[in-house]
Amino acid sequence: MGFFATKVLPEFIEVDLGHKSLQIRLKRNSRAKRYILRIPPGDPTPVITVPARGNLKTAQDFANRQVGWLKQRLGSRPDTIKFEEHARIPIRGVLHTLRSSGKLRGLAQLDMEEETEELLLLLPGETQSFHRKTKDFLRKLAKDDIEGHVRHFTKQLGRNYHSITLRDTKSRWGSCSHDGKLSFSWRLVMAPPDILEYVAAHEVAHLVKLDHSPEFWRICEELAPHTKQAQRWLKEHGSQLHLYGQE
Questions:
Q1: Pairwise CA distance, residues 28 & 14, whole Å
Q2: In the chain, which residues fall in CATH 3.30.2010.10?
Q3: CA distance linking residue 133 with residue 123, whole number of Å
Q4: Angle separating helix axes 193-205 and 214-223, nearest 10 degrees
Q5: Up-side HSE of residue 147: CA atoms within 13 Å toward CB?
Q6: Long-range own/partner contacts, residues 127-135 (CB < 8 A, 24 or more apart)
Q7: What is the Cα–Cα distance from 187 to 209, expressed in whole angstroms?
Q8: Are the beta carbons of 201 and 223 closer than 8 angstroms?
Q9: Other C-beta atoms lying within 10 Å of the C-beta of residue 170
Q10: Most CB contacts within 10 A, which of 82, 166, 172, 229?
């Protein structure tokens, strides 16, 4: 053991914004060299990254000095969009309006209003269940799209994968483990189809090279020639996908 013992931090601290108090989550990172405050996309709780030798007092002092920044950022932050009736959400990059199908049972389905040509996602049952049913529909659609691309790309490379899991991660769009387990954010199905295709290609390329070496990027761009454009889209627009479906 080393000479330095890291004290356990509380999960949250609070700062006074004047009209109310605000909770901030603390997250220790052994690789961080300084305290960093950020507001994760689609999450109302700010996060302070605390370096390995950081402590509670310094984290609290740092947070108190950032009150003005927090007021400005939280005040100008775009509103989240709930999965509720009449909400408009992107599906495969195109906005759809959530609408009741008027049926008590059945499956959610994509449709179009004939007169206005408005694209719809029709949902059965009570409106109170719209959040769950919309999320279930998007997850299934994402699974179908991702599995199709993964099968195509693994066949192209002559590789096998172990499994595919869908999650709601905020820090990454996909991952690949050393034993071939692939994981993806279901929110990718809200992006244009070529973005989901790129992320699938990226993770399948890791089945060959589990790093980000020049050889890895060669394989990735061979599978998805639009790799650079997709990366740029995710950097500029990816955080917006986390604004949808927050309860």
A1: 17
A2: 88-243
A3: 7
A4: 140
A5: 11
A6: 127/84, 127/85, 127/100, 130/83, 130/84, 130/85, 130/98, 131/82, 131/83, 131/84, 131/245, 131/247, 133/108, 134/83, 134/89, 134/98, 134/108, 134/245, 135/83, 135/186, 135/245
A7: 25
A8: yes
A9: 15
A10: 166
Note whether 54 and 29 are within 8 A (CB).
Answer: no
Residue-wise pLDDT for 131-161, tens only, equals 999 999 999 999 999 999 999 999 999 999 9
Q: What is the dihedral of CA 216, 220, 222, 224, to 10 degrees?
A: -170
Q: Average pLDDT of the chain?
A: 91
Give mean pLDDT, residues 80-102: 92
Report the length, in residues, of the chain.
247
Q: Which two tokens stand for residue 92?
A: 């495969």
**Mean pLDDT across 74-87:** 82
Amino acid identity of residue 88, one-letter, is R
> 């004939």: which residue's tokens?
114
Give the span between the Cα atoms of 61 and 75, in whole angstroms: 22
What the block records as the tokens of 185 is 């954010």
